[in-house]
Amino acid sequence: MERNRSTIIWGIVLVCIGGLLLLGNLGVLGKTRDLLWSVLFLGGGAVFAGVYIQNRSQWWAIIPAGVLVSIGALIGYEQFLAPADEIIGPAIFFVGMGCTFFAVYLLHRENWWAIIPGGVLLTLAVVVCLAETANGELAGAAMMFGMALTFAVLSLLNTPDGRLRWALIPAGILGALGCVILLQAGEWAGYITALIPIAAGLFMIFRASRTRREE
Fold this sequence. Notes:
Blueprint: H1 2-26, H2 33-54, H3 62-80, H4 88-107, H5 115-133, H6 136-155, E1 158-159, E2 162-163, H7 168-183, H8 189-214
Antiparallel strand pairs: 1-2
């Protein structure tokens, strides 16, 4: 009975989508077409949200629910609220997507992997905003720092397999890349960039020599 009900619901959704496509191609919808598309995506998100609410073990339904709601919100915002040169719309989409993955983790803590796409998508929202107001180096550095912060947060989580200390490695690498990109914007960027590996190499030689002396 439950399976038949789901089949009927999806059948209705597909019929509605096909009907809207047909009406749009015929030019019947006019200016209300974008509004109807926004409502359709929001309604699709609500359907998947209902799937999760009815059965909390179906955590996967959170992802398509968030994706569809984000798309519906983006369409509605850009058509009815945003000015022509507005950049907030794409940022809203990325924020919605990022929050979707964070919801997957917060509601089901075993899905620690969801922190990674969630953090990356929120970082993209920041980069989109900076791309129009700052130079490329700043936007690139923000991308690296945001991803580094994502992995740093991941390393602090307690999972069934213990602490994810391995996440500190990509966090450190991405953070260092962010510093290098940021330094490229400065006048002394070439000199400082060259000094970083020199300093790291000298530190490694010093530490190895000290350890050997102690042995």
